[in-house]
């Protein structure tokens, strides 16, 4: 059975919802694209788990991204996802990164940007500072500021797997904080080894064996990059043909690379002529 699944669950006797995600092959696809330091691998794993968990809360078809930026040696770490649980991600860094580097040591004065982009409707963006020790705590801050809903998040990642849990009060009229506090304390006890080695049903039974939990069918989480030769050709058309011809004259080809999956797209002189000849007149920079 695939390790890459998201599980949703509800507590029958409490107005609280939960999610659990376990990632393996999709996580490996992301971190294998570049020679990432260990600390960055873990950040990307936690971001993947976070994005999957947050994507499951979306009430629309569209995209979500969680992006960490800062003035430290790691300038960017971002995971993009959509309502189909298709994820991709990348990070940029400069210099040596210690294996046990903290968020602040990696990103310096940093912040987290969460962007929601519905297929139909307005784009929304929320920003919160990286002022807590962990990404999970920073995300809890985000939910407290943006939705005022008590939220508990647990995130784990090593070099092979990533996983996470999400607990949140349902947006109802009543005050259910006591129920949430009790369940949050139980959720806090989950261990990395449990999420990495056990089936989701077993994890939930261990944590909430005295609760009535309704577990829904899992949703597969996959790595999917949106790059293509066609998209690369469209990017080339934003550059003047004179500049592109100069590159062809010098090196004989134009090479476009995708940061997310490390794919390479090569265009020779015939390809370039076809790109500009077949482009809509308003889509070409002369």
TrEMBL record:
Under oxidizing conditions two disulfide bonds are formed involving the reactive cysteines. Under reducing conditions zinc is bound to the reactive cysteines and the protein is inactive. GO terms for cellular component: cytoplasm. It comes from the Bacteria. One of its GO terms (molecular function) is protein folding chaperone. GO terms for biological process: protein refolding. It is found in: Cytoplasm. Pfam families: HSP33. Keywords: Chaperone, Cytoplasm, Disulfide bond, Redox-active center, Zinc. Disulfide bonds join 225-227, 258-261. Signal peptide: none annotated. Redox regulated molecular chaperone. Protects both thermally unfolding and oxidatively damaged proteins from irreversible aggregation. Plays an important role in the bacterial defense system toward oxidative stress. Belongs to the HSP33 family. This is 33 kDa chaperonin. The gene is hslO.
